[in-house]
Amino acid sequence: MSVRTIVGFVADFSTEPIGNDPSGKELAAFVAQRLKDAGFAVEAPNNREDWAWDFYTKDDELKIQTIVGLVDDMDSDPPRQWLITNDCCELGFFQRLFGTNHLAEKRKQMLRRIFDALHLIISADSRFSHIVWDVE
Question: Which of 14, 37, 69, 77 is the most buried (most CB within 10 A)?
C-alpha cells in the first residue's frame, strides 16, 4: 500500500506574507496544533528560509518533517493554492546500519498515521476545498 506524503488544496487562510515571514504562518500553526491535539508530539512551526513553514513530529527514534507552503497555482485543475509535504528526516549512521527494515516499516506507519490525521483535520473543516493527495 502506498503512503500519502503530499496534499494540495485550497484553503481560506491568508496568502499575504507578514513582515519578513513567508505566507502560511497561520495555516502551519493550525495544522501543527491540530496534530498536537490528535496526540502527536509536534514542535512549533519555523520559518523555512523565507519560502515556507516547517515543523517536526517525533516518535521515538523517528522525526517527520512537515512543510507547509503557498504554491498559489489556482489555474491548475484542480487548483492548488497550498501544499503540505511530509517526510522522514535523515537517520543516523547506526540507525541506517542496524535498523533499516524495522525503521522503514515504522516510517511508513508514522507517515500513514500523520496523513490519516491530516485527512480528518482538513476534510472536516469548511475552509478547505479541492483536496488532492499524492502518493509515495
Answer: 69
Task: Give the whole-angstrom CA distance, residue 75 versus residue 79.
Answer: 6
Q: For residue range 80-117, what is the model confidence (pLDDT) as tens digits?
A: 899 999 987 765 555 555 556 677 788 888 988 998 99
- Residue 124: C-alpha distances to residues 29, 89, 118, 119 (Å): 17, 29, 10, 8
Tell me how many degrees the CA angle 94-99-102 measures, rounded to the nearest 5: 160
Contact of 84 with 70, CB cutoff 8 Å? no
Structure-block grid coordinates of residue 108: 511508513
**CA-closest candidate to residue 3, choices 101, 102, 86, 80:** 86
